[in-house]
Specification:
73% helix, 11 helices, mainly alpha, two-stranded antiparallel ribbon
Length: 317
C-alpha cells in the first residue's frame, strides 16, 4: 500500500477515534512526553539560548526518531502501518477535548455560573479567570478554540501528510515544548527561545490552512477573508493572528483587546473590530461547531494532498 493511502486511511481512523473516544483519562502519550521533557529540562536547564536549543533538539528529535523507527518496523505490513498512523493521529490531535472543555464552560455561562466557568477556564487556556466577566470568559473561549483548532488538529494533520508518523509526533512535540517553555517568563525567556521559534515555523502552514478553511466553513466567508487580510498582522503571534482573525470574521464577532496572563496585562489589537459584535455566550457553541467542520475539512485536504503527491512521485519514478 502506498504511503498516501496509509496516511489517508490511518488519519481518518485516528481523527474518528478522537471524535468518538476523546483522550484517555490516564497515561495520555502527550502527558508522558511532557514528563520526559521536564526530566530533560531538569538536567539541561541554564539561562542560555544554546542550552534551550539543545533541550528542544533532544526532545523534538527524540519524538521524530521514535516515529521513524516505529514506521520502519511496521512498513512491511500495510495493516500495521495504517494502525500505527491511526494511533499516532489519535494521540496527537485534541479536537474532542477542545470541544468538550469549551462546551463545559459555555454551559456554565448559560446557567449563570460565572464562578464555575472561571474554575474550568484554566483547563482550556492560560488567561487569568478572576479578571474576566461572563462576556470576557466567552471571548477567551472562542479565541482558544480558534487557536487550538490549528495547534491541536490542523497543524498535526498537515505535518502527518508531509512526513507521516514522524511528522505527527514531531509537530505535537514541538507544540508541547512551546507550551511548556516557550513563554517569556524570567526562567524561560532565553531557555525557551528555540522552542518558541521552532513552534512558529512548524505552525505556519497549519495556521494558514486553518484560516482558509474557517473562511470556507464559516457563516461569512467574505467577512473572514476581510478580517484576515486587515487584522491578522496586528496580532503578536504570526500564527494565531490569521486563525483568530479568520474565525472572528467567520463568526461575525470581535476578538482580541485587553487580556491578562499570569498577572501580566496585555493590550492586543481588536480583530474584526469594524464589522464584528461583542462575543456572546452562544458564540462558544458556534465556535466549537466551526472548529469541528474545519478539522474534518483539514482531514480531507491533507489526505487528498498526500495522495496527489504520492501519485506524482509514482509517475516520475
Amino acid at each position: 500500500m502506498r504511503a498516501g493511502r496509509v496516511f489517508a486511511y490511518g488519519a481518518t481512523v485516528g481523527l474518528l477515534g478522537d471524535l468518538l473516544l476523546g483522550d484517555p483519562r490516564r497515561g495520555h502519550p502527550v502527558a508522558v512526553f511532557g514528563r520526559a521533557a521536564s526530566g530533560v529540562e531538569r538536567v539541561l536547564w541554564r539561562d542560555h539560548r544554546g542550552w534551550g536549543a539543545l533541550h528542544t533538539a533532544v526532545c523534538a528529535g527524540g519524538a521524530v526518531a521514535l516515529g521513524a523507527v516505529a514506521s520502519r518496523v511496521v512498513r512491511p505490513s500495510p495493516t500495521a502501518s495504517v494502525a500505527l498512523t491511526g494511533v499516532a493521529t489519535w494521540a496527537v490531535v485534541g479536537g474532542a477535548s477542545l470541544g468538550r472543555e469549551a462546551r463545559a464552560i459555555g454551559r456554565a455561562l448559560q446557567a449563570g455560573d460565572v464562578e464555575g466557568a472561571r474554575e474550568r477556564l484554566p483547563h482550556l487556556c492560560g488567561r487569568d479567570p478572576q479578571a474576566l466577566d461572563a462576556d470576557g470568559i466567552a471571548r477567551a473561549v472562542v479565541e482558544s478554540v480558534a487557536e487550538n483548532t490549528s495547534d491541536a488538529v490542523v497543524g498535526a494533520l498537515v505535518w502527518g501528510a508531509v512526513a507521516g508518523v514522524p511528522g505527527l509526533l514531531g509537530f505535537r512535540a514541538v507544540n508541547t515544548l512551546d507550551a511548556m517553555v516557550g513563554h517569556k517568563s524570567p526562567r524561560y525567556r532565553r531557555y525557551g527561545w528555540a522552542s518558541a521559534r521552532l513552534d512558529d515555523l512548524a505552525g505556519w502552514p497549519g495556521a494558514r490552512l486553518t484560516a482558509v478553511l474557517a473562511a470556507l466553513a464559516g457563516d461569512d466567508p467574505r467577512g473572514a477573508v476581510r478580517a484576515w487580510r486587515a487584522d491578522a498582522a496586528k496580532h503578536p503571534s504570526p500564527n494565531a493572528g490569521p486563525v483568530e482573525a479568520s474565525f472572528a470574521g467567520a463568526l461575525g464577532v470581535r476578538l482580541g483587546g485587553t487580556l491578562s496572563y499570569g498577572g501580566r496585562v496585555e493590550h492586543r489589537p481588536v480583530l474584526n473590530g469594524d464589522a464584528g459584535r461583542s462575543v456572546a455566550v452562544a458564540d462558544v457553541e458556534r465556535a466549537v461547531r466551526l472548529s469541528r467542520r474545519v478539522g474534518l475539512l483539514a482531514l480531507g485536504a491533507c489526505a487528498a494532498g498526500r495522495l496527489l503527491i504520492g501519485r506524482r512521485r509514482g509517475r516520475t519514478s
